[in-house]
Structure formats: structure tokens, C-alpha cells
Design goal:
Elements: H1 2-29, H2 32-61, H3 68-73, H4 80-85, H5 91-112, H6 121-142, H7 173-183, H8 185-197, H9 203-233, H10 244-269, H11 273-296, H12 310-331, H13 333-336, H14 348-380, H15 388-408, H16 419-442, H17 448-479, H18 483-493, H19 495-516, E1 521-527, E2 532-535, E3 538-550, E4 553-564, E5 567-572, E6 575-579, E7 590-594, E8 596-599, E9 603-613, E10 618-627, H20 630-647
Amino acid sequence: MVVYGATLLNIALGLAVLTIGLMVVYLRKGDYRLFLTGQRTALGISFLVFLATIVLVSNLLKSNFSIDYVAKYTSLETPFVYKLTALWAGQSGSLLFWLFILSVYATIVVLQNRFRYHQLMPYVISVMATIQLFFLLMVNFVANPFNPIDAVVPVIDGMGLNPLLQNPTMAIHPPILYLGYVGFSVPFAFALAALFSNRLDAMWVRSIRRWTLFAWLALGCGIILGGWWAYLELGWGGYWAWDPVENASLMPWLTGTAFVHSIIIQEKKNMLRVWNMVLIITTFVLVIFGTFLTRSGIVSSVHSFTESSLGPMFLWFLLLIIAVSVFLIILRLKDLRSEKKMESFISRESGFLFNNVIFVSLCFAVFWGTLFPVISEAVRGTKVTVGAPFFNQIAVPMGIILLLLTGIGPLLAWRHTSRKSLVRNFSIPVVVGLITFLISFLFGIRSLYPLMTIGISGFVTGTLVMEFYRGIRVRVKKFDENPFAAFIRIISKNRSRYGGYIVHLGIVLMFIGFVGKAFDEDNEWALKVGDQVELAGYSITLTNVEEEERPNHYAWIASLKIEKNGEHFTDLYPEKRIYFHNNPDPNRRQPHSEVDIYSSFKEDIYSIFGSIDTETDVISLKIMVNRLIMMVWIGGYLLLIGTVIALWPSKLSV
């Protein structure tokens, strides 16, 4: 199996080189047979990668410990589902998984466009094959997942999967994140194809619209799922810590969001053509940079892999992408420039442009804060840590501005907005925002940023409600439909517009959830059975501590009775687990706290079993009351629903 899997990757590497060569010769000679052959070899690369991935997965499931990767990331005790997720748990497996997702996309692109975009497809296939070639070089020569184990005697059991990864969310978070991360390779390939072929009209933008939205959606959902995993599994009660690897996923999402907005202007007004090209290339560069950060070992993170020799190779590949892209943009700069200019500061075009500037500025701030410790260590010899306060100081005001622009944009007209239209469009949303602000103030909220966020959220909600109301009113009058039918029809008729509004409503709810963080309460105690403590109006009693041996860990389970106003409210059962508890080597035993949470729209009660003294039966318990956090997850659902609506093919309807 080791030889079989490695051979598949070797042949795929050869086919990648052959595919690129065939496309180069076709572009020089014009023999269409070469292009058809190149298409088939491109599909052959993906097919061999699929087979190699299946081979590795089957060996993970069968616990074939003769393979080094299988022995490191699974064990006989590892549950079936986590043997499957071990595919992306380690360095070499995750690279093969990256390549697998890329090959899925490459296959779809080739099959979908067999009879379309003839001027672009040779370049698209070449770029995709080049990216595949790079990752094939990685998995063949640097981090081969099929390397045999280096052991004198047969390995009876493996080391097992990290307990932090033994969570249902980790079965779906990395694949979805990879779908987004790798998905930006497709619009990047079409962008480079447009530059190489000098076909810089709207064709390349139209060809990638849904690809871009899908990649953006998948990356956004992956980030939210990562926050959910951190909230459930890491035991600190938060969902975003400005960790370097978290930042690495956020940066391409920010520039991708800017691109999603600005291509609307190019499609409608044929403007921002240079800017859009820069944005999509920057997004893919940030994807490779994020992969480099995760695998180079230059930053410390709970999410990153160990230090390896992959870092320099990723850096060289990154520099190659930047050099080729910059050269092509400079070469085509004259053809890229648009003759149309912004006609007014008060227009929808300018609103989109301001939106882009804030997104890119925020991305640069995150980039600088992430790399500053590395730069300071290289220049001064000491690492200067940049923590959450730095990022919050920049991100919070920028986020509030972005939220405000979300409400302003739909109220502006294309080209120019008259004074009369400004008064008519802004009056109701502004009143709603002011009322929301005053109500929040009267209820005792005095902090500046929470007050501003709540007031602006009211303004944006007013804008979105007005947009839906106007569309519904027009259909009711014109077609005599009932309001619900009109609501469905306006979405069906203009999925892109109203799907975007639903996304914006989701963003509003997420911001409200972020505001709740300012009102959290928490405390920590050392308790014995029968002890009672108080927090945020709740009485918490430790009623029992049980022990239980399970297939892959040993657990202490604390039983907590939560009361409010003297009445029973709920029960929580946080756990302290010891994974690999039967291992004779104490250093291999891994403690882990499994939290338990009671969730409601208003707040979460978050319980953490910190430790237990088995001699005195005293446990360390931390309780957190996290306000409005459910709004973050509901907002994420709306973001998903709105983007799916925008992606869904439109129907011709009245």
C-alpha cells in the first residue's frame, strides 16, 4: 500500500508536467489535438490524486500502522469518524487533502468549460496544473503521507489523534475551510488567463462570479465553524482570539469580500478593472501565505503544524506568484484601465469603493499585526508579542464603519444621488437608528462602541427592511399579489440583490452578538460536593462528581444544579477527561476539559471543569455568563442562506 500510494502521486506529478508542456506547445502551434490531450492529462492528474487519497483514507480506517502517518494520528482506540478526520490532522495528510480539494475543483472546471471560453481555458488549465504541480512536489519529496514507519519492530498501536481534534465540529470545519481556501484558486486561474490572453473584457468576471461567491461562502462558514469549535473545545469561553492562524484565514476572506462587492461595479459600469485584478490576485496570494504561516512554524498557534522544511518552498512559490502577477498587470495596465470615472462622491459606486478601502485597510492591519512579532525578532533579536488589544483597537472602529456602509450603500443611486433622494431614502433608517440608540442608552448602556454598534445596527436594519418593503409594495400594486407571495417573488426575480441583503442582515446579527461580549461575567472557584456559589443572578451547586471509563478516555463528570430566583433552571455536566489513560507512559496521557453549555437568545451559561484533586475531592470550576452569543451563530446561518440564494441560478419570471 505504501508503494501503491506513493506511485500514484509520482505518476500524477509527471502528468502535471506533461499537461503544462502540452498547453504551452498548443498555444505556440495551435494544434487543437494538443489541447484535447492536455484536457485529458489534466483530468488524469486529478484522478490519480483521488486514488491516492482513497488509499490513505482506507489505511487510516484499517489502522495500518506500517505507514508513519497512520501510526502518528490514529490508534486502535480512535473512533471511526476521527480516523477519517485524521486525514487532515497532520502535515502531510493535510497537504494531500489540499491537493484533493484542488483536484476536485480542477476536474469541475475542465468538464464544465469543455466547450466554453476557448481563449481562456488553455491558460486556466495551465495555472491549475501549476498549482497542482507545486503541491505534488510537496507530497512527493518533502511531506509524503505514504512514508513507511521507521521502527525496528512492528507497531501494534498508534499514537492517536489529538483530543482537541476529537470533536464533531472538527469533522466538518477543516473541509469547509479548505473548500473556501482552495476555491479561490479558480478565480485566480481565470484572472491570470485573462491577463495572459489579453481578454480583459467582462467575460472572465462573468465566468468566475459563482466560483468566487462559493469560495467566499465556504471560507466564511469555515471561519464561523472554527469559532464554534474554539468556543466548544478550547475552554476559554470565546470564539476569536486573533491567533495568527485564525488571522491567516480571515485575511483572504476580507479581500475576497472586497472583490465580491467590487466586481458588481465592473459588471454594471465596466469600472475598477485594475483594482479587481489586484484584489483577486491578492486574495490567492493571501491563501498561499496563510498555508505558509500554518506550515512553516514561524508563528506559534494552537492551530499550526510543527516546524518543517516546507516553509521556504512555500515562500518561493509565493514570490513566484507575486512576480508573475505583477509583471502581467504592468504588461496589461494600458488595456486594463477603464475610460469611465466616478461621477459623484455621493453614489453607489463610491459606496462600494469606500467599502473596499476599509476591507483592504483592515486586512493590512491584520497582516501587519500577525507578522510584526516575526519581523521584530528578525530585526532586533527579540519577539514583540502583538495581542488581542492591538487588533481590537483597529478592528472595532473599522468594523463599525463597515457596518455603517452596509446600511448606506443600498440607499445611494448609481452615478449620482440627488438631495431629494437622500432625504427620502435616509429619513426612516436614520430615525430607526436614533431610536435604537436612545433605547440602549436608557437601558443603561454607556460604553461608546456598544452604543454606536447598536445604533448603527438599527440604521442598517431599517435600510434592509425598507428595501424589502419597497420591492414587495411594487409587486403588490403591479401584480395584485399578497405580501408573502410578493416577498418570495422579489427574491426569486433578483437573487443576487436580495440574497445580499439577507447576508447583510446576518452581519447585523453577528455584530449584535459581538456587542454582547462587553457584558460577559465570569468567576472561578475550588468546590467540594454540596458547595454553592453565585454568579450573575444564578446559584450554582456542585451536586455530584462521577467517574467513567470510556473506550478512548477516562472521565470525571461534575453535576451542576443551576437555580435562578430560587427555582431550578437547568443542569450542566462539564467533564475532565484523560485521553490515552491506559498508556504506561504518563507523558502520553493527555488531560482535556470538556465544557458544557446552556444556550439561550439572551445568554449562555458556560461551565469548565478545570482540574480535580483526587485526594481531597476538590474540583476547580469556572462559570462564564456570555451575553448574546447566539446572535453570532444565527447571523452565520443567515449569511449562509443569503449567499446560497445569491448563488442559485435565476429564473426568467415576471
